[in-house]
């Protein structure tokens, strides 16, 4: 992969591929370890070298499934970046002590979660660890101590957050360096465009990661009025560019000046190709606005 294919905070430091592979549904794909490795290698060949995990994905199973695949070809780890998240405790048979779903940003939980992720993935370090959700009981100093310990030990290289408001991000950033905020953004969920989240990313020069860039598939399956409007506009603009509607949906995200990094979560390599193809499509302001207003149902004021 060329240097231009990487999204980096500073040269030679934090870097993710411009499209990240999301593995949230990996357990649902019911693949053998060899099939999982084939998909991983297919993503790498497309230039999708970063993989987005969370400890809770697949009922605490996905990291282990991914690690089983990596164990079949250990050298593959050198070609990728692994992102994981922690801070949510699910009520799940795999965690019988959890009476209810709740957040936990304690140092004990963060360190234990990171170490468990390393064990399950079969790796010595995570490239990035994110706090999965804002915790109203978060002690920023305690989180910073946990991050500092993991960084100093070489177990995690960089840290970030997910679903944080600008104020919540700045609180933690005041104690420890953060490299990203992973947020939801697509033409059916445009709040970050106007609530200050993406303005904050530009001000801090923090490139946001984007989860659910296709609205969990709703852009192409939902019969909701807004979804139909957006789908029609995506198809219309796709025809003028000679690409798929999904590619245009990713291009809509990539056009934003905060330079988002979308997380594409599909087991179909063709779908991953459609996401990567968006890197070669630049929408003009009118096309971007046509998609945006299809989502809002209103012209700009």
Automatic annotation (TrEMBL):
One of its GO terms (molecular function) is oxidoreductase activity. Residues 18-292 form the NADP-dependent oxidoreductase domain. Keywords: NADP, Oxidoreductase. It comes from the Bacteria. GO terms for cellular component: cytosol. InterPro entries: AKR, AKR_Detox_Biosynth, NAD(P)_OxRdtase_dom_sf, NADP_OxRdtase_dom. Belongs to the aldo/keto reductase family. Aldo/keto reductase 2 subfamily. This is Aldo/keto reductase. It comes from Gemmatimonas groenlandica.
